[in-house]
Specification:
By secondary structure, the protein is α/β, with parallel strands linked by helices. It folds into 2 domains: 72 residues, no CATH class; 125 residues, Immunoglobulin-like, CATH 2.60.40. 43% of the residues lie in helices and 17% in strands. A 5-stranded mixed β-sheet has the order 2-8-7-4-5, with helices on one face. The chain has a 3-stranded mixed β-sheet with strand order 1-3-6, with no helix packed on it. The N and C termini lie far apart (113 Å). Bound molecules: copper (II) ion. The site of copper (II) ion has 5 residues, from loops.
């Protein structure tokens, strides 16, 4: 009984070596016994060894060999390897697509003023702001001399972004430029990208969207004397009335 519990037979499952090893011990008994004894003694010993080995194997293999009813227990380990790989492939593809849109959106967000009228240096200083928490400018009309102007725009709201965009025309041009900014938002999937491209027809100057409390300065060459339209191109602000008139004298 001691060898059955050792695990050597159960673990190795080498059926031929097991009886052989046990046979060697009793074999010495054969030699010492009488001539007629060995056959009966060998048969008894063999039966015992085979029976014990059989029990040992049956216990060690847990029913895979003999008892058909318990053979069902073995398929259990097979389900574990199947479940483990299924989880890992699911998590990996989820992370990859997340990074791609973020990188594309970041590249489409302007960080400084743009437009054909933007110039270097400094000109006649002018200041304009948003009207507190309203979707409006704090000056509906702004008068500047013709030439080089440096406008500082302040976002006085506490919650939303704003920008300042000057166009060469009235409401028709302003509306088209506002639509061009909206297209940028659709591409970048980010309202901070709500700035018309530099080559948008009718565009003169456009600042980037600035955060609440921030300000931005832009120097530009005014068009000839006349009346022009400025607006904020953050989604919904122009429609809500964030628009004004620049009078160039
Ligand atoms: Cu705005």
């Amino acid at each position: 009984m001691s060898w059955r519990g050792s695990g050597n037979f159960r673990g190795s499952g080498t059926r031929p070596s097991a009886p052989g090893a046990r046979g060697r011990g009793p074999g010495s008994v054969f030699d010492a016994g009488s001539a007629g004894g060995p056959s009966l003694l060998a048969l008894i010993v063999t039966c015992c060894v085979v029976g014990l080995v059989g029990l040992g194997l049956a216990a060690g293999f847990g029913g895979t060999l003999g008892r058909g009813g318990t053979a069902v227990a073995r398929p259990a380990p097979a389900t574990q390897p199947t479940a483990a790989p299924a989880v890992q492939p699911t998590a990996a593809p989820t992370a990859a697509p997340t990074a791609a849109p973020a990188a594309g959106g970041a590249a489409a967000i302007p960080t400084e003023p743009l437009g054909p009228a933007v110039a270097s240096g400094s000109g006649e200083p002018v200041e304009l702001g948003s009207a507190g928490e309203q979707l409006a400018f704090d000056q509906q009309t702004l008068t500047v001399p013709a030439g080089l102007v440096t406008l500082t725009f302040v976002n006085n709201s506490s919650a939303v972004q704003h920008n300042w965009v000057l166009v060469d025309g009235g409401d028709d041009v302003a509306s088209a430029v506002n639509d061009a900014a909206a297209a940028q938002v659709a591409t970048a999937r980010n309202p901070a990208a709500a700035v018309p491209p530099a080559d948008t027809p009718g565009l003169l100057v456009a600042t980037q969207q600035i955060n609440p409390g921030d300000s931005v300065s832009v120097t530009f060459e005014t068009p000839g004397p006349g009346t022009y339209t400025y607006l904020c191109t953050f989604p919904g602000h122009y429609i809500a009335g964030m628009v004004g008139e620049l009078i160039v004298e």
